[in-house]
Design brief:
The protein is an alpha/beta fold. The protein has a domain at 69-145: Ribosomal Protein L15, Chain: K, domain 2, CATH 3.100.10. It is 16% helix and 14% strand. It is built from four helices and six strands; from the N terminus they run αβαβαβββαβ. The strands form two sheets. A three-stranded parallel β-sheet has the order 1-3-5. The chain has a three-stranded parallel β-sheet with strand order 2-4-6. The longest helix has 9 residues, at 130-138. It is elongated. It starts with 56 loop residues before the first helix and ends in an 8-residue tail after the last strand.
């Protein structure tokens, strides 16, 4: 087989329909759009929220509540059970990223207390749950809160 022998499979390529090319083509004159009117013109449709000139529903209803999205703090979450399973003696965001336990450093790191610690571990993270702090100190380990969590935008 040579490159000049290659052809697409039969019936896999269809010709583009050419509209407005004479009455004999079947789609001449008005190009299948009927006569006059809004829908026959280019860009001639209203948006999905248009209700025929009536005040649209999303403008009739009052705005309520508060959205804090621009200032939301996003954490990568790691449980104590994950730390024990990976047999880590020291935990920092960089070490967890290297071990592929977390996916990115941009978010903060929060340690949760799911699991049991049997040996002392030094953990540095942006946030800890109360149960995680209790279990770390009960096992004789240290915890340190590092830096401020960057706000996700």
């Amino acid at each position: 087989m040579k490159i000049n022998d290659l052809k697409p499979a039969k019936n896999s390529k269809t010709k583009a329909i050419r509209v407005g090319r004479g009455d004999g083509s079947g789609l001449g004159k008005t190009s299948g759009k009927g006569h006059k009117g809004q829908k026959s013109r280019s860009g001639g449709t209203k948006g999905p929220y248009f209700e025929g000139g009536q005040m649209p529903l999303q403008r009739r209803l009052p705005k309520r509540g508060f959205k804090n999205l621009p200032f939301k703090k996003v954490y990568e979450i790691v449980n104590l059970s994950t730390i024990v399973k990976n047999e880590l003696t020291e935990v920092t965001p960089e070490i967890l990223l290297e071990k592929k336990i977390i996916k990115k450093l941009g978010a903060g790191l929060k340690i949760l207390g799911n699991g049991e610690l049997s040996k002392s571990i030094n953990i540095k993270a942006h946030a800890f749950s109360k149960s995680a702090i209790e279990k770390i100190t009960a096992a004789g380990g240290n915890y340190e809160i590092i830096g401020v969590v960057k706000i996700q935008k």
